[in-house]
Amino acid sequence: HFEELKFLFSTDRTMHNSNMDLTIDAMWLFLAIFLITAIIIKNANARVTSDPGCTRPPPPVVNIIALLKLLPTLCTKGPEVTMTYLYNTFGSVFTIRFLWKRISFLVGPEVSGPFFQGSESEVSQGNMNEFTVPMFGQENGYAVDYNTRSQEIRFFIDALKPSQLRSHVDPMLREVEV
């Protein structure tokens, strides 16, 4: 019994408590610094990503539960039916969170008009020559002037219509079978 009392009041026990207090104090200090840093980063990101002159609310975000409910529809009926449902439910602009990314969709003529009617400077994708010239050559794609590129795109669109594609099936089958 005496040994127990001796241990309780020994200096080793007191030293152990002070080490534990030091550890707890360090943990609280770390937690406080972490929370302050997180708040500062969140405020800094909010200032960078928000436009103070914009009065419109952000587009609605489709939550993960709604996406999981749409997965069978996507697999059975395809993406067109799924996008039509999302368009009818959320409107012409909505955002889907996928893992850590947010993807905003612009669906319908009321929001996609600027992409088709905007000037070259408004809808430019930058210097695509670095990517397309090695693939298609100097005379194709983005390595040519805007009028030639528009003509090529119209040619590609006409060639990829379902009626045109159906006409290529028989020659392709003959080529594969030979």
Automatic annotation (TrEMBL):
InterPro entries: Cyt_P450_sf. It comes from Aegilops tauschii subsp. strangulata (Goatgrass). The keyword Mitochondrion does not apply. SUPFAM superfamilies: Cytochrome P450. This is Uncharacterized protein. GO terms for molecular function: heme binding; iron ion binding; monooxygenase activity; oxidoreductase activity, acting on paired donors, with incorporation or reduction of molecular oxygen. The keyword Hydrolase does not apply. Keywords: Membrane, Transmembrane, Transmembrane helix. The chain crosses the membrane at residues 22-41.
